[in-house]
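Sample intake sheet
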Amino acid sequence: MTTDDMIRDAAKLLREAEATRQPCSPVRELISADDIDTAYAVQSLNIEHDIASGRRVVGRKIGLTAKVVQTQLGVDQPDFGVLFADMAVNDDEPVDRTELIAPRVEAEVAFVLESDLVEPINTAVDVVRATDFVIPAIEIVDSRVKDWDIKIADTVADNASSGRYVLGTTPRLLRDVDVRGVTMAMRFGEHEVSSGGGAACLGNPVNAVVWLANELARRNTPLRAGDIVLSGALGPMASVSDPGTYEAPIIGLGTVRATFA
């Protein structure tokens, strides 16, 4: 079997799992567990398929930025995926749990860009200058792989285990927020299910966006004005099982809620 055949088979396996809501076996059984470039080729093939089907790309997500999340999933580096417009959920709008397979939630700082980041090497200053505003977010991650049995190649191929995302409604100028110093304690009812802060996200959420800008520039798919960037988890992922609301106050930025019907 050629590499192209393996890429097509892995992409089809993930598409079918998403369409049927029936998880599949790890795609690392089809591609090398450590071949990240081939995994991104699988991701790209499915993105092309989705765009051809009428879906609209509105940004990017960075995954695996927090050491605690890397430990949870047994990986050792960040990854990225795309955000589609139809993945967006309004703050506190009910999410149908049955549309997902095994969702988990994590609180993040979202960046919305005012200008492109096209340089081959970008700096923190470039990211700060390019950012229109930042806003609190909850990413609802999901895995098409059964039981979240994933390594780095599995999650990369699976669009960085994307599912849905919720943006808050309190945009702030980046110059008015110390995104490294923000703190978060996510609650489900009376229970705290995750906590952390900006420093958990590659040391600073700005660092994560710099990493993404450079990775995408290297791949000739740079960040553009208007893009939403989910910069990565501020704390551990929390599994979603029962209906209810996950509320994430990010001190210094605002509060956002993800509600599951």
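Comment: The helical segments are 3-20, 36-52, 67-73, 124-130, 152-157, 205-218. The mean pLDDT is 95.
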